[in-house]
Amino acid sequence: MQCESRLTLDASAADYVVDVANVVREPALGGDRPADLARFEALLDALAEFARDPAVQVYAITDRSLLTDGRLTAQERERLDGWYRDGLLEVLPRADDRILELADALELRVVSGDNFLDFHRAYPWIPGDRERFLRPFLGEDGVLGVRPRIMPVPPEWQVSRKEEEGLLLEAGVLRRWAPTGHVAVLSRDWRCPEPGCPLFGAAGRPSTALPRRRKDQVLCPTHGAPLADAGPRPRRAQVKVVMDGTVRGRFMVTAGEPLAVGRAPAGGGVALGVWVDEHAVESVSRTHVVLAYDGRVLTVLDERSANGTRIRHARPTGDELVPLYRGTTWTLRRGDSVVLHDRLELLPSGRQFVFEEDAKDGTVGPQQQSSAAGPTMLSVPLPLSDDGLEGDPA
Fold first, then answer.
1. What's the whole-model pTM score?
2. Cβ-contact 359, 206 below 8 angstroms
3. Is the separation of the CB atoms in 356 and 379 below 8 Å?
4. % helix, strand, coil for the chain, step of 5
5. Backbone φ, ψ for residue 184 (5° rounding)
6. 136 beta partners
7. Residue 24 parent element (H or E)
8. Are 309 and 366 in contact (CB under 8 A)?
9. What is the dihedral of CA 265, 267, 269, 275, to 10 degrees?
10. Contact between 18 and 69 (Cβ < 8 Å)
11. How far is the first Cα of the chain from the last one, in angstroms, to the nearest whole number?
């Protein structure tokens, strides 16, 4: 798959945030050159394998110095510049704090060999973390892979030294999000005053990136200009279509707008045939379930399926399959999935914020016929319910 199709600056659509310069400049990842763009391209394939998602989406960020790095070929530098101009790559004087802003605000996993020592006090969840970071590695077969890493707990002097270095590079400005300020920021649509801004462009195109917040201002991370508030974003929840354990596509449920899901919903909805094979989709009813989102929790109703629906309910002792009887509504919790067929499930995303909507999401109107479409990476928040009795239908 062409690597450009895996790059996005829609922060809520991304599966990972990648420290591009760190990867490109790491000789241990293969090749004879001190800087090699092929390492980043190989990493995208490794992430697709790791995520079991051929269309995995990556939010790529790099230090500005990489675009002028003489150790890269002229063709490689031109390609990086093209990605930036096309809105596929975020370029900053220094990328580290932006990477951690994305990880902190949206809970994206970070791919980097950097220990981020100068940010341990600003982001106290980093030291000892076992979940949020991945490290690229070169396998014995010469193929690049990724694996989870445990972040170090460094001595105080190392943290202080790195903090000083960061302050010098950033002219004494520490960029960190207020504890709850990002919630208000991410619920709005923003526009940059600079013409052609790749992150927050013209009014005809929804903004897709995560803005920067400094004190009381919301800024464009590329131009540093204050962004204009273009109004609220509708609350949405993302649902992944999983077949044989692999993500095949994604669609969104908008708050207050119940959405039918099935083989070919007669009144409009999500037609699963655009993603799954004929055998699996034949076992799915035309309208199998109806999903609804109230801005806080996602629910599922088996309205009239022929072969039934089950809920895969996550428990500490292992997953439990619970039948969802016709006419019963289930409030989905984190880890729950909706089983439509032995090979086919609907898995709610854990995203908290939503950005751009993608028209190629499998949704059809009452008069439309379903057609083939590739899997799409969609943005979505999903603050699933964490209260109420476990396993109890709503």
1. 0.52
2. no
3. yes
4. 20, 25, 50
5. -65, -40
6. 146
7. helix 20-24
8. no
9. 30
10. no
11. 42
Helix (H/G/I), strand (E/B), else coil: 216: coil
Classify residue 43 as exposed, middle or buried by CB count within 10 Å of its CB (0-12, 13-18, 19+).
buried
Distance CA 289, CA 220 (A): 41
| Amino acid identity for residue 253 in this structure | V
Q: Helix, strand or coil for residue 66? A: helix
Distance between CA atoms of residues 111 and 150, nearest Å: 12
Place of tokens 């379930």: 289
Query: What totals of helices (H) and strands (E) does the chain contain, helices first?
Result: 7, 22
- Residue 269 pairs in a beta bridge with 364
Instruction: Please calculate the CA angle 233-237-238 and round it to the nearest 5 degrees.
Output: 120
DSSP bridge pairs for 226: 219
Total number of residues shown for the chain: 394
Q: Per-residue pLDDT tens, the chain, 394 aa: give them.
A: 578 899 999 887 899 999 999 999 999 999 999 999 999 999 999 999 999 999 899 999 999 999 999 999 999 999 999 999 999 999 998 899 899 999 988 888 999 999 998 888 789 999 999 999 999 999 999 999 999 999 988 755 566 556 545 543 342 222 333 344 556 777 788 888 888 888 887 555 545 567 777 777 888 888 889 989 888 877 878 888 888 888 788 888 988 999 999 888 877 888 887 777 777 777 888 889 999 999 888 999 998 788 889 999 877 677 889 999 888 899 988 778 899 988 899 988 766 554 444 444 555 554 444 332 222 222 233 334 443 333 344 4
What SS3 class is residue 264?
Answer: coil
Q: Cβ(136)–Cβ(145) under 8 Å? A: yes
Tokens linked to 333: 């919790």
Hey, which residues does 56 pair with through a beta bridge?
none
